[in-house]
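Entry:
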Amino acid sequence: MHRKIGIAVLVLILVHYFITPDFKGLSLTSGLNQLAAMFGEYAFYGFVVLLIFSLVKIIPRTKIEIPYHIWRITHRFIGVLFILVAFHQMFIKRPYDGTALLASYLNIFALIGIGSYIYTQLLPWLRTRSYEVFDVNRHEGATIISARPTGRPLKAKPGQFGFFRVNKSGLREPHPFTIAGIDDDGVVRFAIKALGDYTKALREGIAVGDSVTLEGGYGHFNHRRGGKKQIWLAGGIGITPFLAMASRLKGDEGQDIHLVYCVRDRSEAIGLETFETQAGKLQNFSFVLHDSAKDGRLDAEKIVAASAFDPGEADLWFCGPPPLRAAIEKGLKALGKTPRRVEFEQFQFR
């Protein structure tokens, strides 16, 4: 939704620029009117550049990808441009005076926008916590990192994600990862698969004793918002939110949960002990591991056959590759087993 709004804003800005209204209306002073016009023009060029920069990951006809950390820094300047736009609409020549209802409406929303921008810039500082790594397990399927707080613990719910940054050379850039586990004493665990340059460097470079900075938790992927019957479907490293949620189940949630964990090979699976222990002692939680190397490709029919209840009467909670979700949704619909609702997060930031 955020991305779609950004595209709509870009289109409207272009319309406003090429179809410039010629208001012979009211303005506070000619000096402020000229300044507002100048700010509006600067904001136009800035918005066009930054919004295109946000929408385009790879430079056309090249293999040059815009680095995430550069995009992240430039994206923050959109709030500054919004302030210029707010000044522009407040003091540009217009066909109504400053006491008109429309003026009040626009000014109030401009102030809400400026306040929201300031809040989002301060929020990371308010949610940032210092941690120290005390265990690193380089599992075949992921690097399991455990850290304890050195001060106030992170406030996060099972299923949420946080920004993770190691305070050492080459690993200082913050990246978002789902929290694989959080204990009452603040100890957190991350299960991070080496899929890109940063995660590969993290797997090789992180060590016990390293200082890390965490920010979070963010997101609304939490089963307590769901229905009484839920099927959890995890693909590969998408198991992390379910690992955090399953470890905190007590059996009194009033929800029946069936977890399907799909991996390419059993050796890549993580958290099996937690799932097996919980399934053994809780009546409302069941679990099945789908080993694609042995069991073949996971499809809707296999999910229906293995589920403890009818998927058509349950919510589907998904985390994993989008093509897997699309295939399962399509297959369940074809079988007449369309879930009551499908819950997932689009875990992308541009």
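The chain has a mean pLDDT of 89.
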